[in-house]
Design goal:
heterodimer, A: alpha/beta, Alkaline Phosphatase, subunit A, Immunoglobulin-like, 2 domains, nine-stranded mixed β-sheet, four-stranded antiparallel β-sheet, 10 helices, B: mainly alpha, two-stranded antiparallel sheet
């Protein structure tokens, strides 16, 4: 359908138009009736491992170790260092956190996930995963977007409203997620920092011409209107929310952990967003995915360590918050890599790879068999797909969001096979911490220009204050002061600092806390 | 298609007013001023096109602006062609040169007059992407290829780029050897740089080429290495062919290329390969679509494909892949000036920022160190808005130019629209960069507007510079209410004339400036300002 068919000039604040008459509306309404109350607070977190993850080095088929040695000895981790999950299957040693999650019964591993007729182009294959299409079909909306269109008909017209006051989906990072692209609009709000949205002044524009100028202007008007509406909600929920896990690394060290930390903060602050999409980049490891001489270190090991640490901390956080039974997450990557290494201590684009599902309510299991690695797989061979990714995500839609099986089939235009991924939720053992006891810090204005003010509560003592850049390096020391117990406030003058993302960091004997800020 | 009458490359022969002239300039250069628009009107369409394509001297190379400890390159001199030094243990020299290159790139764009060169340089950079290059000489050499040949020969550019040191590093060509083939560059050469990927019609067959071709082309390209990365010797940035790394077997391409056999041709082999690829008609179609999306609009339906893209491609092939005739035809066509094309592009962040600085005539002083610091700040802004020059997010470039269905819309979301708004407010209200207070001189800016005494004419005239289409009467009333809240029109005339007769009256000057600031922020916050 063409975009201009959805041309709107009305305000997004107007109430939803009455359903009825249209088939789409009736269908969606019935479905809403079925699902809404009991499932309405459930959340799905999608982690996109961009670049094509080397699955054979992530979940390692120990029973194929001999053949793997002959094909990728330069990048294969030593057998005795593999973290064993079962007799036949193990994990890369950089992922002790994820092994904990597995041991706690909160991780499902699904082997050999892909789709028939693997496309080895990053861009086309990413499109296929985003849209949930078959390899030969080109769609221009995402599978989550299509699902949300059935649940929130007419979006964005009439949103937010009383029933859906918050953003429906959020992408942490620079751009909205193609997976959340609906028919008329993208459901995701892209945010880097939930407290840094502006209120943009303006006035009603005129009628929109039925021309590209009108289409693009309409889109920008909508984003401005949505930004103005959601700016306050996001900053309020971010301020009300708190992270409780001690397992997060310092900000700037692990970009995925930083994103998931923000997700956990927003969840704890009461944001009713259903879908969060986060990204970890850099899996296109054509060269030097391991350090020469030590296959347990290098680019790929670091990426896996980040993935593992981030999910581990996030799970811990939402469990401490008491929100773990509301959240299911999954990873994905556009393809796996070839079985044989390429000689540059790297691997070229391949086919299928394992995918992970996590949460207190997922079935802890290794689903599917280890890939069988032939002695001579032939040049440029990848791991053949055995499980279609559309079945994985379709099953999550069914069991987590209560979508009927025939509707899932329709969403994917594919012969859908249900898989048991979701389980009765594990009862949590940890005591929930009282959020009000937790450490509090905020810094403003955000973005800041020449002055920055921080507010925090402290048990008293000496605190060191500094600004840290996105790579975790301290770029500006702001001083060390003694504070008496209670709520404190301190201001700093900032000059000669390049524009960018920073963290305001407080360090003391008991604490090491940071808060992210934008500098203009 | 509604409002869309001119669906071919017939030369435009309609009225040539400031509306058409500013449309052309907004698409081809950064932030055209009133003066630029007046020049274009005066020169006429052919005259201004000649001016845009005119080859002017290259900008003077970037200089060391902030690293006093460089033993080779004193502050104020250029580091281009100079090695790094062993004493640079904390990588300050590397960081300083990269910062210099980035600042300079912003500065070159800001200082450019009427020319297509800077926008075409970014076009090529977005086409032949290199990123994550820490050696500023590698990055400078790479971007200079595109700046020098901004309307040059596409096939030649592909050849030069294939063995460019930055490209050899970025897509692992330098690791690609007979002993250890690495297919990264081979795949992107076909998929993104030349012929493009068609629909997948069978396993490993993408219509225009197959997986087999990627394997064979990797072999053809073996042997090239990039030397001198971050070199601390005299030898810097050089690509070299190393015969014993080259696969000398005969390679056979798929039926998609007529199963052509390519015997060993050593260091000439890549050129032969590129000649073979460029024999396929699809190459010209592929680049024509990319040019169209850069200058006109992203949607290419069947009509556009048949009536615009195919004719563009045929001009390109007839010119043996020289870009200039095709670009001239497009920018002079009725289609380009049709209402269908006007205001249809969402400005990319670099255009947004450089354009804002230029259009507001922000004074950047004459001290080169201060200038570089300022431009560095602007480079950072562009990054915050998700366009880091020299660091496109992937080898496919910025999503705005290829990713369905959002295309240009991928620039605009809650975060980036907030930042665009705050950034323009900051520039209008003034910002401090190091010790310099940077401010747009708005009273000076409006000097060029003849009827500036009349608030309505003032708003109309500024609107013609800032917006691609006229804004509504309601919007004009709103802007006037920001300029003279609740006052009759003549109050502006009276106060402004009073200032003109008493230019030394600082209080009056400040008061008028504050009114203009408020109104300008209002103008720049309108969604219309994001469009080109």
């Amino acid at each position: 359908m063409k975009r201009r068919d959805f041309l709107r000039s009305g305000s997004v604040l107007s109430l939803p138009i009455a359903l009825g008459g249209s088939n789409v509306g009736v269908l969606a309404q019935t479905q809403l009736g079925q699902l809404m109350p009991e499932n309405s607070d459930r959340i799905f977190v999608l982690i996109q491992q961009n670049g094509g993850n080397d699955g054979l080095n992530t979940i390692i088929p120990i029973d194929q170790y001999g053949t793997l040695t002959s094909l990728r000895s330069d990048i294969l981790v030593p057998e005795n260092q593999i973290l064993t999950l079962t007799e036949e299957t193990g994990m890369h040693p950089a992922m002790p956190g994820l092994k904990d999650v597995f041991d706690e019964g909160d991780l499902g591993i699904i082997q050999n996930v892909g789709y028939p007729n693997q496309n080895r182009s990053h861009f086309r294959s990413t499109d296929i995963w985003d849209t949930g299409s078959v390899a030969t079909e080109v769609l221009n909306n995402g599978w989550i977007g299509r699902y949300l269109d059935t649940r929130f008909p007419g979006f964005p017209e009439g949103y937010p409203n009383e029933e859906t006051p918050h953003p429906i989906a959020i992408t942490l990072g620079p751009t909205v997620s193609e997976t959340c692209q609906g028919i008329a609009a993208n459901f995701s709000l892209a945010i880097n920092d939930p407290t840094a949205l502006a209120n943009i002044p303006g006035t009603e524009g005129g009628e929109l011409p039925d021309l590209p100028y009108g289409y693009e202007l309409d889109f920008i008007r909508q984003v401005v209107a949505q930004t103005n509406i959601y700016a306050e909600i996001l900053s309020a929920t971010a301020e009300a929310g708190t992270n409780l896990s001690q397992l997060y690394p310092d900000p700037g060290q692990n970009p995925l952990a930083d994103q998931l930390k923000t997700v956990a903060q927003l969840i704890s602050g009461g944001l009713q967003t259903k879908i969060y999409v986060v990204n970890i980049n850099g899996f296109d490891t054509h060269a030097n995915q391991v350090d020469g001489g030590d296959a347990t270190t290098g680019i790929h090991a670091q990426l896996l360590a980040n993935l593992s640490e981030a999910i581990h901390a996030f799970m811990d956080d939402i469990r401490l918050q008491g929100n773990d039974q509301r959240v299911v997450g999954a990873t994905r990557s556009e393809f796996g890599r070839q079985i044989a290494s390429n000689g540059s201590l790297g691997t070229d684009h391949g086919d299928a790879a394992p995918l992970m599902v996590f949460g207190s309510c997922v079935q802890s299991q290794i689903l599917g068999d280890n890939p069988t690695i032939p002695n001579d797989p032939g040049p440029r061979s990848g791991v053949p797909a055995q499980i279609d990714f559309k079945d994985v995500f379709g099953s999550i839609l069914m069991d987590w969001f209560g979508v009927a099986e025939n509707e899932v089939s329709d969403l994917f235009s594919h012969d859908f096979q249900h898989m048991a991924l979701i389980d009765p939720c594990q009862t949590t053992t940890a005591d929930h911490l009282d959020i009000h006891d937790a450490f509090f810090i905020r810094a403003y204005p955000n973005p800041f220009f020449e002055e920055i003010t921080a507010e925090f509560n402290t048990e008293g003592g000496e605190l060191r204050m500094s600004l840290v850049n996105e790579s975790g390096q301290e770029v500006l020391y702001l001083g060390t002061s003694f504070f008496s117990p209670g709520k404190q406030q301190v201001s700093h003058q900032i000059s000669e600092l390049p524009a960018g993302h920073y963290y305001y960091r407080l360090q003391g004997r008991q604490i090491n806390k940071s808060i992210s800020l934008l500098h203009f | 298609m509604a409002g869309f009458s001119n669906l071919d490359l017939t030369p435009y022969e309609g009225a040539w007013t400031s509306k058409e002239a500013s449309h052309l300039l907004r698409r081809t250069m950064y932030g055209p001023s009133k003066e630029d628009i007046d020049t274009a009107v005066k020169l006429g369409l052919d005259g201004i096109i000649d001016e845009l394509f005119d080859i002017k001297p290259l900008p003077t190379p970037p200089i060391n602006f902030n690293y006093g400890n460089d033993p080779i390159v004193p502050i104020g001199e250029s580091w281009v062609g100079k090695p790094y030094t062993r004493s640079d243990t904390s990588n300050q020299q590397i960081g300083s040169r990269l910062a210099s290159l980035r600042s300079w790139t912003v500065g070159v764009a800001i200082k450019e007059g009427i020319s297509l060169r800077e926008k075409m340089t970014l076009f090529w950079h977005n086409h032949f992407v290199t990123a994550e290059i820490r050696d500023a000489n590698f990055a400078y050499n790479n971007i200079t290829i595109y700046r020098e040949n901004f309307t040059g020969n596409f096939r030649d550019l592909t050849k030069v780029t294939t063995i460019d040191t930055a490209m050899l590093r970025y897509l692992n060509g330098t690791q690609n050897s007979k002993q250890r083939p690495n297919e990264n560059f081979a795949r992107e050469l076909l998929e993104l740089f030349t012929i493009g990927k068609g629909p997948q019609v069978a396993e490993g067959d993408y219509t225009n080429y197959t997986e087999h071709d990627i394997g064979e082309i990797s072999k053809i390209l073996t042997g090239w290495v990039a030397l001198g990365y971050l070199s601390r010797n005299q030898e810097i940035a050089e690509s070299r062919f190393v015969p014993n790394r080259h696969d000398t077997s005969t390679k056979t391409l798929s039926a998609r290329f007529g199963q052509v056999q390519i015997p060993d041709m050593a260091d000439q082999e890549y050129q032969h390969l590129i000649d073979i690829i460029f024999q396929q008609d699809e190459v010209a179609n592929f680049i024509a679509r990319k040019v169209y999306r850069w200058f006109v609009y992203y949607e290419i339906d069947d009509q556009i494909e048949q009536n615009i893209i195919k004719p563009m491609a045929s001009i390109l092939r007839d010119a043996d892949y020289e870009m200039e005739p095709m670009l001239r035809a497009l920018l002079s066509s009725q289609h380009f000036y049709d209402a269908y094309a006007v205001g249809a592009i969402i400005k990319n962040p670099f255009d947004f920022i450089v354009g804002l600085i230029k259009v507001l005539q922000v004074d950047y002083g004459s001290n080169y160190q201060e200038q570089y610091n300022l431009w560095r700040r602007f480079y950072g802004f562009s990054g915050l808005l998700q366009q880091d020059y020299f660091n496109a997010p992937t080898v496919a470039g910025w999503k705005a130019y290829y990713q369905e269905p959002l295309y240009y819309r991928s620039w605009i979301n809650a975060s980036t629209i907030s930042s665009r708004f705050l950034f323009s407010s900051l520039i209008v209200n003034g910002m401090r960069v190091n010790r310099i207070m940077l401010q747009a001189d708005l009273l000076n800016l409006i000097e060029g507007i003849e009827d500036r005494h009349d608030p309505n004419a003032l708003i109309d005239n500024l609107g013609e510079i800032l917006f691609p289409e006229a804004i509504t009467d309601g919007q004009k009333e709103y802007l006037k209410s920001l300029l003279i809240p609740g006052l009759p029109d003549y109050e502006w005339t009276v106060e402004y004339d009073l200032y003109k007769t008493n230019p030394e009256d600082e209080e009056l000057k400040n008061a008028l400036n504050a009114r203009l600031q408020t109104m300008l922020i209002g103008m720049l916050s309108l969604p219309e300002y994001q469009l080109s």
